[in-house]
Specification:
The strands form 3 sheets. An 11-stranded mixed β-sheet has the order 8-7-10-11-12-13-14-20-5-6-9, covered by helices on one side. Strands 16-15-19-18-17 form a 5-stranded antiparallel β-sheet. By secondary structure, it is an alpha/beta fold. The protein has 11 helices and 20 strands.
Length: 420
């Protein structure tokens, strides 16, 4: 479309009639050129696609100005200008193909051989086993849980033979010890050196940091600690993952406020695991373990700050029992759940709003998330293209759960052959 704008004014100078006329003519866009380039590269098993869109618009503008017009002379000037506007848009997408998302099996204890059988059966499903073997000491060093069979060489060789990576946990719930650690760079470096020594000795894949503390005033220090520790471990080819509580908003809690998603998302940590369980938003009533709608909301909130290729969804493989007035009675591991079903003589129902199994008792209610219910949580990891899932826990959890996760993630199930 052609746009013409004119302005005319008249006045008298020395008895001669004069006028000033300014006319602007803007011509339409004369040229539009779009160039799209796509580049891909692979880093740590994930394909990154970078799409660059370059749009060039050329705009020609002609301005004719009659400066003075009298009976004696006319002064006019015409100026034609060409402006080129270039816009560059870059989109970076990390593709985590379905079937290649990582599956981490957390374990509290690795002593029970029946748990080894589950690992062996689902060796094609489980990528990493992360046992609760180490804790932070008061001296800010590494302590070992001997009663949980930490550093069991037979177990280490067992995993190695299956091609499963071993990533021990380092845990604590002591806020003051963590505060001292994250504000002391020399202490962080000493801890890193100790972890590297252990990893070299036992062939670890890396570590999972599970510090569940309440120090919101040190949120930036905690993120800096994770970044510094990750960089130290990377020098030796080790990975670092960190567990954080799930949240779908900035909840008024010192615990959740300790973990700044925006800061943690920018660290060198290889993965950030949101522990999407132990739902905490209701009060004065029994609470489910992890309502499915809450889990999805937490994932969407985390993705505002954490790249999807670094985000792992934590999934429960356990349950809880509550009194009807909302007071907590206790945890339910899978054997406990089966015992409760047998002793009560009642059947559970599936609450499809929260996707959990519910058992109504006299003055009590029990919630449980087994593999059937965990399947729907794993589908959320697929829907949003997350790095993978981590399940708490393998030992004393539903032993068939791993088959459900495999189907959700598109992973290869173990081969089952019939007799003969």
């Amino acid at each position: 479309m052609l746009v013409v704008v004119g302005f005319v004014s008249g006045y008298i100078i020395g008895g001669a009639s004069q006028r000033v006329v300014t006319t602007t003519v803007t011509l339409p866009v004369t040229k539009l050129r779009t160039v799209t380039s796509v580049a891909t590269y692979t880093l740590r098993g994930y394909v990154t696609r970078i799409t660059t869109l370059v749009s060039t618009r050329t705009l020609t503008r002609t301005v004719t100005a009659t400066l003075i017009s009298t009976s004696l002379r006319t002064l006019a000037k015409t100026v034609t200008t060409t402006a080129v506007f270039t816009r560059v848009t870059t989109e970076r997408v990390v593709v985590v193909p379905r079937g290649e998302q990582v599956v981490i099996a957390w374990m509290l204890n690795t002593c029970n051989r029946s748990d080894w059988e589950i690992i062996e059966r689902y060796a094609r499903v489980i990528d990493v086993v992360s046992p609760d073997w180490y804790y932070l000491t008061e001296e800010l060093g590494v302590g070992r849980y001997d009663r949980r069979c930490a550093e069991d060489k037979e177990f280490i060789e067992f995993l190695k033979g299956l091609g499963i990576k071993l990533m021990p946990m380092l845990v604590t719930a002591n806020s003051e010890w963590v505060r001292r650690l994250v504000t002391d760079p020399s202490a962080i470096d000493a801890l890193a050196a100790e972890l590297v020594t252990l990893a070299k000795r036992y062939g670890y894949y890396g570590y999972n940091i599970d510090f569940e503390v309440s120090i919101p005033e040190n949120a930036a220090d905690f993120a800096s600690f994770i970044d510094r520790l990750a960089k130290r471990l990377h020098r030796y080819g080790l990975v670092l993952t960190v567990d954080v509580p799930a949240k779908r908003m900035e909840w008024p809690s010192r615990y959740t406020a300790t973990y700044d998603y925006a800061l943690l998302g920018k660290t060198e940590a290889d993965a950030i695991i949101i522990m999407a369980y132990d739902f905490y938003e209701w009060s004065g009533r029994p609470k489910p373990v992890a309502p499915i709608w809450w889990v999805e909301d937490c994932v969407k909130y985390a993705l505002r700050y954490i790249p999807r290729e670094k985000l792992i969804l934590g999934i429960p493989n356990y349950g809880k029992v509550w009194f009807s007035d909302g007071s907590f009675k206790g945890w339910l591991l899978y054997p406990d759940w089966l015992d409760l079903l047998r002793s009560s003589g009642r059947n559970y129902t599936v609450d499809r709003e929260i996707m959990e199994k519910v058992l109504e008792l006299d003055n009590e209610v029990a919630y449980f998330v087994d593999g059937e219910m965990g399947y729907y949580r794993a589908l959320i990891a697929v829907k949003y293209g997350l790095k993978g899932i981590a399940v708490w826990r393998l030992d004393k959890g539903d032993p068939e759960a791993w088959g459900h996760y495999a189907r959700a993630l598109g992973k290869q199930l173990p081969c089952v052959t019939g007799p003969g």
